[in-house]
Design a protein that fits this description.
Elements: E1 6-9, E2 15-18, E3 37-41, E4 44-47, H1 50-57, E5 65-70, E6 75-80, E7 85-91, E8 96-101, E9 107-112, E10 117-122, E11 127-133, E12 138-143, E13 149-154, E14 159-164, E15 169-175, E16 180-185, E17 191-196, E18 201-206, E19 211-217, E20 222-227, E21 233-238, E22 243-248, E23 254-259, E24 264-269, E25 275-280, E26 285-290, E27 295-301, E28 309-314, E29 319-323, E30 328-333, E31 338-344, E32 349-356, E33 359-363, E34 375-376
Length: 378
């Protein structure tokens, strides 16, 4: 257990604080084990078993694994989604942030913000098999739908590295806006969208030519980005304005602005595109936006202020939220919007991605549903 808090400067210019003090409240059940907590009401929690969690969600993500980067521990936690147990903790470079898993589930790519490298993790052996130099302060990562190309936002060099996952080599470097922190790829694979936190914009990259072909307007400090399955709208989390911008990709204009709360960060869409899930650090909750009406239709409290829900990954059966301040991963049932489990992880959980043999979904800038949509990025 750490006796002092750890800090690290973020590309946006803030200092983020790991708060390991919250972890001392969780008794250790065994080496590597995590205490599961079930939310009974807003006023309290009760312990429950993995079986109870599976029952509560109706159908757990059988065969899936959840991958979470622990930014200040320099590790990746690997979690069995059906049992909610940590099955491995893998060293993963310095300052791991965004993470994305290939569609076949064989590789996880991790952005090392302090090492200026991307690490490739073999999901079978749980070992790093390659490290690739990229730009300064890499944070967000996203894969093309076929998994052949990885896009990496470099917040310290104002560009995006394009990496061939077959060779693990950078094939292009694309200049974008100031302090890019998050990236997502359209479901047809034709466009990558990059949130530029320092220039209040979203860059569009043509994935065939690997060139920026224009920008979309956003609010101040856009730090998260996701695109609907039909490619018609981009959802952008604007940290400073506490709002989510909904942008038409056809007109290039903001069609709606959705207030969500102070400290908005990660945004991810459900596999069917009907809901957007937004992590809101200030109050410690997740907002649910109906993408048809562009209105908030639900709020899930994941913890008190200081929990800092950060990035989100979504499957048909679960919503996974990294809680940077609490050092935990929260699991939410998307049907009932109830918290079904809280798992103790490492120091400052950041990015999150979910994978099974044959499909992957990730989020986390800093990282998506069978297409890895992003991720938010700090």
């Amino acid at each position: 257990m750490r006796s002092a808090r750890h800090t690290r400067a973020h590309p946006v210019g803030r200092t983020y604080i790991g708060r390991p003090y919250m972890r001392v409240l969780r008794p250790v059940l065994g080496a590597g084990a995590a205490l599961l907590l079930m939310s009974c009401s807003p006023a309290g929690t009760a312990a429950h078993s993995p079986a109870a969690a599976a029952s509560a969600t109706g159908q757990p993500d059988a065969g899936h694994h959840v991958y979470v980067t622990n930014q200040l521990d320099n590790t990746v936690s690997v979690i069995d989604a059906s049992t909610h147990k940590v099955v491995a903790t893998v060293p993963a470079g310095t300052g791991p942030e965004g993470i994305a898993v290939t569609p076949d589930g064989r590789r996880a790519y991790v952005a090392g913000s302090e090492s200026a490298k991307v690490s490739a993790l073999d999901t079978r052996t749980k070992k790093i098999v390659a490290t690739v130099p990229v730009g300064k302060k890499p944070t967000g990562v996203a894969l093309s739908p076929d998994g052949s190309t990885l896009y990496v936002t470099n917040g310290g060099s104002n560009n995006v590295s394009v990496l061939d996952t077959r060779t693990n080599r950078v094939t292009a470097t694309v200049p974008v806006g100031v302090s890019p922190v998050a990236v997502t790829v359209s479901h047809d694979g034709g466009t990558a969208y990059v949130a530029n936190s320092g220039s209040a914009s979203v860059s569009r990259i043509d994935t065939r030519t690997h060139r920026a072909v224009g920008t979309l307007p956003a609010g101040r400090s856009p730090v998260g980005v996701a695109v609907t399955p039909d490619g018609q709208f981009v959802y952008v989390a604007n940290e400073t304005t506490a709002r989510v911008s909904v942008i038409s990709t056809r007109t290039g204009k903001v069609t709606a602005t959705v207030p969500v709360g102070e400290g908005v960060f990660g945004v991810t869409l459900a596999p069917d595109g009907k809901k957007a899930y937004v992590a809101v650090l200030g109050p410690g909750n997740v907002k649910v936006i109906d993408t048809g009406s562009h209105r908030v239709t639900g709020t899930v409290n994941v913890g008190p202020p200081g929990t800092d829900p950060f990035n989100i990954a979504v499957t048909s059966h679960a919503v996974y939220v990294t809680d940077q301040g609490a050092g935990t991963l929260t699991v939410i049932d998307p049907k009932t919007l109830k918290v079904t489990a809280t798992l103790a992880l490492g120091n400052s959980p950041y990015g999150v991605a979910v994978a099974s043999s044959g499909s992957a979904t990730g989020a986390g800038p800093e990282a998506g549903s069978v297409s890895l949509t992003r991720t938010g990025g700090r």
